[in-house]
Amino acid sequence: MTESQLGADAARPVKRGGGDPGTRGRTTIADGVVEKIAGLAARDVVGVHAMGSGFARTLGAVRDRVPGGGRSAAPTRGVKAEVGEVQTALDLEIVVDYGVAIAEVARAVREDVIAAVERMTGLEVVEVNIAVSDVKLPDEADGDYGPHAAEAAEPRLQ
User: Fold this and answer.
1) One-character DSSP codes across 9-59
2) Beta carbons within 8 Å of 133's beta carbon, 6+ residues apart
C-alpha cells in the first residue's frame, strides 16, 4: 500500500453496523405475550363477563388457590395466539353478560384486541376469531354458569 492510499483510507469515515441501530438484531415475541395482551384488552370491553370455557375457568380457579400455582395463567385464559415473524392470529373464548348485543360486544373486542396487540407488539393482526361460550345471567353467582351448571346444582335423581 502506498502512502497516498493509506492516507485516503484514513480519511474515510468508518461505518459501524450501518443503518438505524433499532434494526440491528432480531426481536421475537412469544405466543404467551400476545395472549396476555389480547386477554387483558378483551376483559376491558363492557359486556365481557369472563374469558374461557366453564372448564377452563374452573381449572384456573383451582390452580389460583394452589400455593405456587400463581395467577400468571389468568390473563391468558380463553386466548390462543399463533405468532409469526410479522403477523399474528388470535382465537378468543368469552362469556358475555345477559342482555348485551353479542355482535356489538364481539366487534368491540376485536377492535380493542387488534389495537392493543398491534400497538404493543408491532405485529399485524390478521384475524381475531371469537367464540361466545356462555351468557352470564343476572341471578347466577360467578362460576355457576356453563353447560353443566344446572346439573351440578341439583341432582336429577333423588
Assistant:
1) HHHSPPP-S-S-GGGSS-----HHHHHHHHHHHHHTSTTEEEES-HHHHHH
2) 52, 53, 54, 93, 94, 95
Name residue, grid cell 405475550: 33
pLDDT of residue 143: 62
pLDDT tens column, 49-72: 999 976 544 444 544 555 655 544
Residue 17 exposure: Cα atoms within 13 Å on the Cβ side? 7
Rounded to two decimals, the pTM is 0.69
